[in-house]
## 1
Amino acid sequence: MHLRRVSRHNASSSYVYSAQIWSESAHRERKQHKNRRFSCNATGANSDEGAAIIDGKAIAQTVREEIGVEVASLKASTGKVPGLAVVLVGGRKDSETYVRSKKKGCEEAGIQSFGTDLPEDVTEEELLKVVADYNADPSVHGILVQLPLPDHINEENVLNAISIEKDVDGFHPLNMGLLAQRGREPFFVPCTPKGCVELLERSGIEISGKTAVVIGRSNIVGMPANLLLQRRDATVTVVHSRTPNAKEVTQQADIVIVACGRAEMVRGDWIKPGAAVIDVGINAVDDATKKRGYRLVGDACFDEIKPIAGAITPVPGGVGPMTIAMLLQNTLEGFKRTVSA
Ligand SMILES: Nc1nc(=O)c2c([nH]1)NC[C@@H]1CN(c3ccc(C(=O)N[C@@H](CCC(=O)O)C(=O)O)cc3)C=[N+]21
Ligand SMILES: [Mg+2]
């Protein structure tokens, strides 16, 4: 994983590594937060009381098996399989890990995976050529350019170049615009927020008529999560780094989606008893007791929230695995549109 080091809590000897830097804007937001300090006294206790733990890993596995069954049956009837192209620029360890999981997910589901690994110093022009070739390739139904891209490449230009019919990340401005409009449907919905909603639905948590708070306003998670929840008739409030009363607003929520990119920022006293908490964050914290030297924590303080909430996703094993399952689902959806056309 590429892990950015930021000082954690008040203890100078421990660090948080944030693996969630997907975009320049997220990077800027994090800088603005730099002087804030939070502490969360993890007890390590894992009592049976309190929130139901939403097992994202198991739910993702179920989704992947469903996709595998459908892919096999479409292969039998059409002789074709879905194809996903993953473009990786540079050698970030976290990106390499995620790309490997995506390719493995494809293999298991019977989806053909294509990969292009480009050097860190590739020109924007060369990258755009790779995208154009995949746009033109009829055996490719989904194209994903792993983010973040190196600084010399304009991310917007690259996302704009992906065919909206193959934009399995749903990051193309046209797909985002369609998501934002009532009565219209994007070709693809971004994988992480889609995974959050799927976790709620598959856990039997009602969304319609409920009060939801989304913490974070990124293009990749917070903003589309807001739109998706509104489409399911939740009343949604988005809070962010400049919201003075984020805690008080969050205390009103039946559903909380946490995507602020700050380790354990959301504490137990932010959460209304019985609320559902979906934690999108992945942060690695130094931990000498662990073999790898760190452990992963979310943007929510799991041990404080568990006794209070009605349901909570763990990190790891919550939203992360669902993101990959939704990517495979989007690829299958793109493929189905081409075979039925
Ligand atoms: N164009 C693009 N699309 C993306 O969807 C995209 C991206 N760029 N850049 C990076 C982020 C991050 N991301 C994750 C996917 C899976 C896990 C995941 O499977 N996490 C596991 C394992 C965590 C671990 O061990 O590191 C878990 O939470 O249990 C996490 C994060 C997709 N992203
Ligand atoms: Mg934010």
## 2
Amino acid sequence: MTALSVNLNKIALLRNSRGRDYPNVLQYAQKLLAMGVDGITVHPRQDERHATRKDTRELANLIKHHPSAEFNVEGFPSESFMALIAETKPDQCTLVPDGPDQLTSDHGWDLHQHATEVTTLAQQLNHMNVRCSVFLDPDLEQVRLAAQCGVDRIELYTESYAQAYGQDNQHEVLARYREATKLATSLGLGVNAGHDLDLHNLKDFLTIPDILEVSIGHALTIESLEMGVGQVISRYLEICASAA
Ligand SMILES: CC(=O)[C@@H](O)[C@H](O)COP(=O)(O)O
Ligand SMILES: NCC(=O)COP(=O)(O)O
């Protein structure tokens, strides 16, 4: 079984667009945990345009009361991000090589360049008792380097799989993820996956054995809107139709 960790960044983004606490991120997390999701993910970016540092603190407190659920905090390992991790001690910290002005995550680590830094960060997280995962393209050489850095898991960046899904190269691309997962597992690394996974492409992706966790947010939020819109519009129409 693969754990589903729901990324609440897009709920936070909606909330931030109005300056009120609606929708409430914490209440969403509570609702999702009650529905049986295995974990909550946030990716607090430097400009706090989605999940904020405050959200991260509050979610950490909430999830401590749900021992069967995990809290995964993703982000670029700036000094302030690492201080937030030390303070909130999530179950897992996923290091992502994002620049501060990036629209969204769009590449994994290049461990030829960043092995020393990632090794030090993995040691720091280990001392905090926080599982260390690194965001990685499905590249065998990068997987080998990740194992040498002493991380616990890798998170495979699945955007290229999502792009290929339904196209002629789908099987070829999926095979790269399969090989990367197989190698990682044989080297003792756990494997997570995420980015642009959705209700259409997830099932085929999970034909790869040993994917421990998927974190999903963007599509899941849109799918929730799409699947709920019919019911909501009917109710509005009912109210409008009954108006004097
Ligand atoms: C690392 C990763 O893939 C996710 O954290 C994802 O990037 C969330 O991105 P947004 O901040 O764009 O919702
Ligand atoms: N780590 C990936 C994640 O948390 C969610 O990515 P997306 O579903 O928002 O693309």
## 3
Amino acid sequence: MTYHNLSLHTDKYQINMMYAHWKNGTHNEKRVYNAFFRKNPFGNGFAVFAGLERIVHYLQNLKFEEEDIEYLQQQEEHYDPAFLEELRNFSFTGNLYAVKEGTVVFPNEPIIRVEARAFEAHLIETAILNFMNYQTLIATKAARIKQVAGDDLLFEFGTRRAQEADAAIWGARAAYIAGFHATSNLRAGKLFGIPTVGTHSHAWVQDHDTEEEAFEKFVSVFPNNAILLVDTYDTLRSGVPNAIKVAHKAKKEGKQVKGIRLDSGDLAYLSKQARKMLDEHGLQDVKISASNDLDEQVIMHVKLQGGKIDAWGIGTKLITASEDPALGGVYKLVAKEKNGMFHPVIKISEDPNKITTPGVLTFYRILDKTTGKSHGDYIAMVDETVPKEELKMFDPVHTYKQKIVKNFEAVEMLQPIFINGKLVYELPTIEEIRKYHQESLSQIWEETLRLLNPQEYYVDLSENVWKTKMNLIQKYRKETNDLE
Ligand SMILES: Nc1ncnc2c1ncn2[C@@H]1O[C@H](COP(=O)(O)OP(=O)(O)OP(=O)(O)O)[C@@H](O)[C@H]1O
Ligand SMILES: O=P(O)(O)OC[C@H]1O[C@H](OP(=O)(O)OP(=O)(O)O)[C@H](O)[C@@H]1O
Ligand SMILES: O=C(O)c1cccnc1
């Protein structure tokens, strides 16, 4: 895939802050930022991290071309030519740590940590959040759909309804990571190695004198994999009977109609009737697929009503994450360098959920060695040793809620991706990511995975992190009181 240089894919305030740092001589000081989200989308109990591959390519290709420099010069009269010269030599030289794509993640944990010169850390915020927020959102929506679909096949059909081309292909990839089986977008298929799928549209049927002729012609060119759309005129009176006729004829000629597609009406009723009609004609091997504004709710209800659908094609509601269209992930400064050392910094808010967790942080998934399931996640300083035998886990807000965990394995979730600007991580294949996602899901109790009112997963702080946070809150509270 050719990756375009996206250096200007940032907000102007980032370049302004880079400029202000440069003018003040602080641009080479190191900063630490964490990317995280505060709330699971769709009322879900978890999210599925995606976007890392795009972030890796973005950082590898990050440079200011001559035309970008010229454009910046025109945009802001204050930019000093010597600053623009500095941009000419720009590349990402920092460290980036991230969880693996496909990981089940939770609110408020640092899923990406950036350690870089203030100059670089500012520039990359916007693009990192752009990639992480969208792809994680779609992977999460896809995981919800996957959960209700069971063993049924899931096809991603969203491109025509997606918010432009990038969203279509990266959304198709995110859906595949979360367990979809194929996409209708050939470019996504080619770029990422996702299996592709295609039926035909209503236009194909309208284009012929009769529906039967349309089906026959289609089967004649796709003798073993045609899926016939049966709802153009009347699903049960015309579409299904014509498909049956054509399927019989095909059989006699050594061909095979692979399936039919329902795209309107009551999908439970129509699929049950269609299955009955097909079976009565000995066509048990003709599968039924469905589409039409599907999401996890409709799929679940159609299945509860006894619908006989083998494959689901999902477009609009997946690719636009229609009922919750933004993840809201943020990138916050958590430590800054002074005299060669990192010092934790905090952002205070009236809303306790918006107070950041300071320090150079990592986090661990605390897996029970007997069940293989997670007790929760544990955020600690990178230089902290996590106890091996007994771990005290406590709720960081209601601290009296605590438990002592034994017989566990603490798995560090953040992986080094770039060290001193060098890529040190081998990007996994899409199949490896998809498999890893299932493994990650299997470590979470089903009470947290359920679609409706899931049990909240514990994301706890080490005592050290908690104390650092409380001390900083006290410090700022005291300073503010002193001012009054
Ligand atoms: N049995 C069902 N239970 C719950 N929802 C369903 C069922 N069958 C279809 N739906 C969903 O209901 C929504 C509306 O379907 P409806 O039949 O009203 O519209 P339509 O079929 O698109 O209409 P039209 O026939 O005019 O194209 C769609 O999102 C569809 O997926
Ligand atoms: O409903 P979605 O989840 O968004 O899935 C994609 C939709 O796109 C197609 O319809 P469209 O009316 O665009 O074209 P068609 O003529 O092929 O039906 C397809 O038949 C699906 O209904
Ligand atoms: O192949 C299909 O049936 C398809 C592809 C894209 C959108 N709707 C349907």
## 4
Amino acid sequence: MSRTYGESAAAVSALEEVTVDFREGTFTAVMGPSGSGKTTLLQCLAGLVRPSSGRVALGGVRIDGLPEKRLARVRRSRVGFVFQEFNLIPALTALENMLLPMRLAGRTPDREWVAEISGRTGIGHRLSHLPHELSGGQQQRVAICRALVTRPAVICADEPTGALDSSSGREVMALLREAVDVYRQTLVMVTHDPVAASYADTVLFLVDGRIVDTMDRPAPHTVAEQMTALMEGA
Ligand SMILES: Nc1ncnc2c1ncn2[C@@H]1O[C@H](COP(=O)(O)OP(=O)(O)OP(=O)(O)O)[C@@H](O)[C@H]1O
């Protein structure tokens, strides 16, 4: 799959013939220097950006050629999102935020599942609170529940710990790891943080729109060393 932004002389090649398979029930971190194409890769996978050429499949179903309306439906029901800034709706309670993707998809929430994930993420006693009444870490837990609630084919997380202090960040990473281990959730996360990346099964390193390396069972220091080497080579 490739993705170019702009045309002719102004064209920027964000992804160049990237081939990658995110297997079910695995956790992959995507790292690389600024502008290397990480977010573009995540957005192509989530159906937010279409590849300029090539194919994208989600849970075995091709999504690259779908008309916009169908693509929006697929995004709502098959993709969960976790963002750096949480992106909760300020006027809705934690529970209402959690259930919003289900509502938009016209589906009835499974109450037991909602109780299970809000209990496991430790926000069961905060469900009637508004986002501004919650800490950053708690807001991100609500966002993780919102991502899990539809049992999506993939959760796409873009810098999920970027706005958190290190101890809340570690708690959020532990929960994302549990979502993979306990619920067999497939998770793809863009991060600049070697500690966050070390929670993944595999790290992909992107440089100039290409995957230049992969690392299994990453440790924070080996990830940091590889990032330093890539930055120096860039
Ligand atoms: N909407 C857009 N229009 C034009 N160029 C874009 C657009 N989005 C991304 N790009 C360009 O594509 C390239 C890859 O961008 P992308 O955001 O995917 O990189 P990234 O690795 O996520 O960067 P960062 O770590 O800084 O967030 C960059 O050169 C960027 O300027």
